[in-house]
Design goal:
The protein is an alpha/beta fold and 184 residues long. Helix content is 32%, strand content 33%. The chain binds adenosine monophosphate (AMP).
């Protein structure tokens, strides 16, 4: 299956900006807005994802609130598949199902519309997309939610994996994971 050359990986990584101590001290925030506003980098990434997924048997692309919406919706359009937003609690207007997940302190919750994955076959096949794996908790909850909604999460596609946090393993317990860029 399609993977990126090391030159292209280095190029894409170079377009992502590190912001130290955001949103709180000790965090190095990976700012992908500098990849998005670079038309060549954004196209290189989307061309790669299109090539990787164009032969995969999927019905929907689901993106996680909020940066997963950007890459996920662009990819869904390129693949001519429906796009489904997975949102933080309280944002979706119709009947929802939700999944809670633990944070360092407390809980967060992701939601999806109950009928989001209705399609011609009984069990829709869904590709999950987000920008980054840190602890893996958000994507793990999102993949579980897709399965809970009666669909089948066939892969989680993440732009960046912060390997030192080991979050990928958590998601891999539910679905295969493809990370475009691994950051040590
Ligand atoms: P986690 O659930 O810990 O894997 O966190 C993943 C989510 O938090 C993703 O939706 C990311 O957008 C965001 N996130 C966590 N850490 C960072 C970081 N260092 N830089 C940018 N986004 C982050």
């Amino acid at each position: 299956m399609e993977v990126l050359s090391s030159e292209d990986k280095a190029y894409l990584l170079g377009t992502i900006r590190d912001i130290k101590d955001f949103p709180k001290p000790g965090i190095v925030f990976k700012d992908i807005t500098t990849l998005l506003n670079n038309k060549d980098a954004f196209r290189l990434l989307m061309d790669h994802l299109e090539r990787r997924y164009k032969e995969m048997d999927i019905d929907f692309v689901a993106g996680i609130d909020s940066r997963g919406f950007i890459f996920g919706a662009a990819l869904a359009d390129r693949l001519h598949k429906g796009f489904v937003p997975i949102r933080k609690a309280g944002k979706l207007p119709y009947t929802t199902i939700s999944e809670k997940y633990a944070l360092e302190y407390g809980f967060d919750e992701v939601e999806i519309h109950l009928d989001a994955f209705e399609c011609d076959r009984e069990k829709a096949k869904v590709l999950l997309v987000d920008d980054l794996i840190a602890t893996g908790g958000t994507a793990e909850a999102a993949a579980s939610l897709i399965n809970k909604a009666g669909a089948d999460c066939v892969e989680a596609c993440m732009l960046i994996n912060l390997t030192f946090l080991d979050g990928k393993k958590k998601i891999e317990a539910i679905t295969p994971v493809y990370s475009v860029l691994d950051v040590q």
